[in-house]
Each structure stands twice: as C-alpha cells, then as structure tokens.
Amino acid sequence: MFNLINSDLKFIAQNKGLDPSSISAKFRCALSPSFICSFLYRVSHQIHSLKIPLLAKLIWWVNFLLFKVDIDYRAKLYSGIYMPHPIGIVIGDGVLSTANMKIMQGSTLGGNLGRTSCINDKTIKQPHFFADSFIGINSVVLGPLVFEKSVCVAANAIVTKQMQAGLLYGTNEQKPLTSQHQESFFK
Hints:
- By secondary structure, the chain is an alpha/beta fold.
- The strands form four sheets. A six-stranded mixed beta sheet has the order 3-6-11-14-16-17. The protein has a five-stranded parallel beta sheet with strand order 1-4-7-12-15. The chain has a four-stranded parallel beta sheet with strand order 2-5-10-13, with no helix packed on it.
- It is built from five helices and 17 strands.
C-alpha cells in the first residue's frame, strides 16, 4: 500500500509541475484534495483485502461525504491516481488499472447494465486500463472494455464500445493521439 501511496504522490507532483522526488513537493501534494481522496480509497481497499468489509465501507463513506466521490473499495487501481478536482467521480468495483490515471471531475468508470466479456479466460464487466489514461470532464466509460495502450477520453464523451487504444475518444468516435496529447496528458 505504501508503494501505491508514493506513486500517487509522485504522479500528482508531476502533474502539478513539481519535482516528484522532492520531500517538500510530496508534502504539498499530500495536503491536496486529490491525494486525500485517493488515500481514503487506498485505505478502504487495503482494509477490504484484509476481509473487514464494514470498516472498508465506512472509510468509503467518509470519502463520499467529503468529496462526493464513489470509488468502490473493490476497484483495483494499482498505480498513480490524480484527480485534479475530486468531485462527482464514480469508479465501479470491477475497474482495473495497472498504470497512471488522471481522472477529471464528473467522470464515471463502471459497468454497462451487466454486460460481460470473456478475455483471456476471464470474465470482465467493467473497464480495464493497462497503460496511462486520461479521463476527461463528465465522461463515461462503461465496460466491459480493455485498453492495452494509452487512452484519452475527451470531455463529455461516452465510450461503450471496444475501440483501439492509443487514441483520443469522443462519443464512440476515435482519432489518433498526437505527440502533443501524449505530452500534455501523460506527463
């Protein structure tokens, strides 16, 4: 858990233009709403993995009351999380991320009315991200979807169909990411 907390601090510092190795930068980031929100998720996830669901739910509830953010403690977010404005964000229990995610306010990552897909002999219901991802303001990404390369979901976009990764998504539309996208979204 401490490695994940450190990766959150580093990713937040990078996105704020601070030196991620600086102790003072990490301290500044630790006081940000983005970090507090991700920290509460990390604690509730860890407690859930220790099979103490009531306490995990209680910490989830604190996160919801403070930020109006619903990050399910069963979600598996295994790298840096940065939420510049953590309000109105919903992340479902089956969401998986193994890379950094920048998630803007009002975004939803979750299931699509119980739809499932079998990928590599595993049934998935919600989005899986295996590379750095940017989720724009008020966007909705509903699984089962798998993104193996970096993805950028534009503001107000709705993504419900499996599309190629490494692209900029509008509402079920896609176009290649430019180097400018790569530099600005995935610092």
